[in-house]
């Protein structure tokens, strides 16, 4: 149940982002750097898509995540109106500097020293910090419209639901221990904590979402 709900949260996030693509003139506040990191996360995580079959649902979700993430990056880079409205001047987080540390960490800490397992660990470490460029951009510009706020919230909810899934499986499945996944997921959720607080405050008070500078 948690597995299904968390994937639906991520799919709703992609759907909200797709709605924004229909209004390309209001693309300020969206970080291309975060979208590039997520594309790299899914590309490194789903290398086994053609070699390891789990289920039809699993394969379809992998294809959706890969297709959506790379389509968003392409659209933001090459669509004329989107490129014009994209706030490149404020989206200056040096995101590739966090890729190498994540890769080194994956080479040092992994469950099994194989290419697929190392890249899986790399995807977990990178996903934990992939939202940083987006959060930094929102704090710099304080330009948070409803669609952007909902999109970031659903990305955070996707990971928070993973934690509930892990808790449930820990108590229902024998020997279910995955420290790498747990720690990286917890770090990722904590990065969203500040955003969650201001998101719920704005929803509670029915005011525009604003993050402190």
Automatic annotation (TrEMBL):
GO BP, sorted A to Z: protein retention in ER lumen; protein transport; vesicle-mediated transport
Localisation: Endoplasmic reticulum membrane
Protein topology in the membrane: Multi-pass membrane protein
CC terms in the record's Gene Ontology section: endoplasmic reticulum membrane
Transmembrane stretches, start-end: 21-43, 55-75, 96-113, 119-138, 150-168, 180-200
GO molecular function, one term: ER retention sequence binding
Keywords, ordered alphabetically: Endoplasmic reticulum, ER-Golgi transport, Membrane, Protein transport, Receptor, Transmembrane, Transmembrane helix, Transport
Keyword Transmembrane helix annotated: yes
Pfam family, one: ER_lumen_recept
Main location: endoplasmic reticulum
Assigned protein family: Belongs to the ERD2 family.
Protein name as annotated: ER lumen protein-retaining receptor
Organism: Salix koriyanagi
């Amino acid at each position: 149940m948690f597995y299904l709900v968390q994937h639906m949260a991520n799919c709703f996030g992609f759907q909200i982002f797709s709605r924004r693509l229909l209004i390309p003139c209001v693309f300020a506040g969206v970080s291309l750097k975060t979208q590039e990191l997520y594309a790299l996360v899914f590309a490194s995580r789903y290398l086994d898509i053609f070699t390891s079959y789990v289920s039809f649902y699993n394969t379809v979700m992998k294809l959706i995540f890969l297709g959506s993430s790379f389509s968003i990056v392409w659209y933001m880079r090459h669509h004329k109106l989107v490129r014009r409205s994209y706030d490149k001047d404020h989206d200056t987080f040096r995101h590739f500097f966090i890729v190498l540390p994540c890769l080194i960490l994956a080479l040092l800490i992994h469950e099994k020293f194989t290419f697929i397992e190392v890249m899986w660990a790399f995807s977990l470490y990178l996903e934990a910090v992939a939202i940083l460029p987006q959060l930094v951009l929102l704090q710099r510009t304080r330009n948070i419209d409803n669609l952007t706020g909902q999109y970031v919230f659903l990305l955070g909810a996707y990971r928070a639901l993973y934690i509930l899934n892990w808790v449930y499986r820990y108590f229902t499945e024998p020997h279910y221990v995955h420290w790498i996944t747990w720690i990286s997921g917890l770090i990722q959720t904590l990065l969203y904590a500040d955003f969650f607080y201001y998101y719920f405050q704005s929803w509670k008070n029915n005011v525009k979402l604003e993050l402190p500078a």
